Amino acid sequence: MPIPLPENLIFAKNQLDSKEPWLLLVEFTLNQKYTDMSWSLGSGYPVGTVVRNNRRVYESIVSHTGLGSNEPGIGAGWEACWVDISATYRLVQNNEDITYQGKTYTRFPVKMEPFVQEGTGQLPQMKLYLSNVQLILQGIVEYYNGGVGSFVKLTFVSHGNLDEDHTLLEKHFTVKSVSCDEKWIVLTISVPDPLLKNFPLNSFTPNHCRWGFRSVECAYSGSESVCEHTRKACKELNNEINFGAELGLQGELLRVV
User: Fold this and answer.
1) CB neighbours (10 Å) of residue 93?
2) Over the Cα atoms of the chain, what is R_g?
């Protein structure tokens, strides 16, 4: 359960006034534990394993093998295997709260600096400033492991067109470092490290379906809510034609796909 922001926060008026036609929305997802490990299908996860998936962090509560049905945050039965140890705070540089895509963004002083890119081979970075009024947000950041490794999504939306889809104007970042003073919490953020992405993107196995249950590829539309991602389960669900494994990989021969 996220630590809630207090209601009726008091800021200096000039900190919230926005004369720009565009609003900056900040979605700040903090994690209780830091990890570079991404969840992957077919991997084994002992109790206490911490993984990241879809820009949130989860901790394993039972020993299990990664299946589509227990993919953290997505699979139909993920809550039996994982606990979500992330908390998301949504802020907007504005003089009042707004609702965008069904989610409420709290009025909060925010400012940002341009990207800094050096010729050293490092990923470009920028600084994002969040007000440290009453040290409220600082206490939250300290509770969630200091904020390093957390995720930030920045979205620019038109002030007068909040019902429009601004997905093309959103960018995702990872928090590299955090510092605080009496006025601001300073997040040094960078684009996600490409070396942390799964590679290869898809893995192929002979006995385990890689499709998400009820996904477009799976195409199952019956009444069952859980699938074991085995060929036997597909047969029982009368959906064997969409079984997402490579049966030709069975046996001892090396096959390249």
Assistant:
1) 22
2) 22
- Strand residue runs (E) in the chain: 22-31, 44-45, 50-53, 56-60, 64-65, 82-84, 86-92, 98-100, 103-107, 110-112, 125-131, 151-158, 170-180, 184-190
pLDDT in tens, the chain (257 residues): 566 665 655 554 555 555 567 888 999 999 988 888 889 887 889 999 999 998 899 999 999 888 888 999 988 889 999 999 999 999 998 888 899 989 999 988 888 887 766 666 677 888 999 998 778 888 889 888 888 889 999 998 888 888 888 888 888 999 999 999 888 999 999 887 666 566 666 667 777 787 877 777 888 988 887 788 888 889 999 999 999 888 777 764 444 55
Q: What is the pTM of this model?
A: 0.67
SS3 148: coil
Per 3-state DSSP, what percentage of the chain is helix, strand, and coil (rounded to 5)?
15, 30, 55
Tokens of 58: 């989860």
